[in-house]
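ugh ok fine here u go
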Amino acid sequence: MRFPLPFPRFHFYEIADQSWFPAILREKVQASLTILWKIKVPLLQSQSAASSFACTLRSLLGSSLTSYTFVDFCSGAGGPTTILEHEINLKTKGRGENAVLGESRNNKLTTTGNDIELVQLNGAGKEERDIEEEAVDFVLTDIHPHLEAWERAAKRSDHVKFVRESVDAGDAPLNLLAKVDGLSSDEQRKKIFRLFSLAFHHFDNDAAIQILRNTLATSSGFCIVELQERTFEALITMLALGPSLWIGSWYWFWGDWMHLFWTYVIPIVPLVVVLDGLVSAVRTRSGDEIMALMRKGRMEKEMRGWRFERGRSMHTWPTGQLIYFVGVKDD
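structure:
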């Protein structure tokens, strides 16, 4: 059962986004968020949040998954992308996961002209999907590239790439893959699937509309994923992040004495993670609100031939939900 907050989306501002917030502290906050994607808490999680996201992508895209190059926008320090790459490429051989349970089975949308109707993506509803044995590339991008972190990630996997120059999610070029280091000409011809991992809620409506317009024009698919929503349960989950960081940071960040100082001596890192998490929940959009933005931006023409699906899956018992909105363009 869900308990929605009794007010509409507000575009409050997160502390870590502000120019006055020290870069060293922003780096520590981003590192903590990355850890929260990776960890698997015994009894409360059957898998990490990033693994849950990987299962969602495999389930939604099925056998078409290997036809894409996944481009992560607003990557920050890397977030879940390196884990996604590992999880998806580890399991590209064999059978895919069953379809994601929950609302997703009843919330599939497509556009035909100006109308919206329910559909299924890639034969959703099949018990199993065959996934071809082929590695998938993941590309990190950001308007402020985090090159040192990305270079470390790329050294750990041949299938993690990045764009060295600044990439604006609302003005990404059609030939974006040509700017990626290490992609062959054949790989550059693959279809682009955009990822927005804990990113889309950061944009106000005008910026979000521009990003959606650019996405429809320059990609063949996209997924907006959030680990929070506008519900009381999400607020409980965000409040629990503080104690979680207090309990685990000594282990996760042992040796990074600056991180531990700003966690335990002066606890700015857990405080900012919790406060920004609460703000994130308040400004996360529902699938209906994302569809409304595309209508508001008069994208009816661009939306033709696209199919959309929204849904959820639990990543942390009993209140943590992974929320997604996916668009796939018919070839």
